[in-house]
Amino acid sequence: SFLIGDGTGMGLPESDYFAFEACEYRRQFLSYKPDYAIMTNIDFDHPDYFKDINDVFDAFQEMAHNVKKGIIAWGDDEHLRKIEADVPIYYYGFKESDDIYAQNIQITDKGTAFDVYVDGEFY
User: Fold this and answer.
1) Which residues form the Mur ligase central domain (predicted)?
2) What is the spatial distance between Cα 73 and Cα 56, in angstroms, rounded to a whole number?
């Protein structure tokens, strides 16, 4: 089952999982207490609400403390690298310094293929 921030979604009674897109605007995502969170970036979005990038960061920092089991975060985001949490943070990206990373990326007209490495081991 899933829910996207614009209200689009689908629920199936037999689903074991529920994925949702949450928006930081007005700190609305702080009402959630997810098992896992995927954080793709922190940037100065919604300047009508947030004072500056530090204010946005503080909202994400608070969200990180709401997560119960783990955070998966984009490794190239300088702000996400500063997040502190009570759960493990796994960084993903294209660098060997990331916990999960892609190599041997091939882009064709049929799609994209790549090798996945977890903690330096081919998965």
Assistant:
1) 14-120
2) 16
- Res 89: pLDDT: 99
Q: What is the pLDDT of residue 6?
A: 80
Helix, strand or coil, per DSSP, at residue 81:
helix
Domain of 68, in residue numbers: 2-122
Q: How far is CA 60 from CA 83, 97, 123, in A?
A: 8, 23, 30
Domain count of the fold of the chain: 1
The CATH number given to whatever domain includes residue 93 is 3.40.1190.10
Extended beta strands in the chain, E state: 2-3, 9-10, 19-20, 36-39, 70-74, 89-93, 100-108, 111-118, 121-122
Residues in the chain: 123
Residues 20-37 pLDDT 10s: 898 899 999 999 999 999
Separation of alpha carbons 84 and 55, rounded Å: 15
User: What's the distance, Cα to Cα, between the start and end of the chain in Å?
Assistant: 27
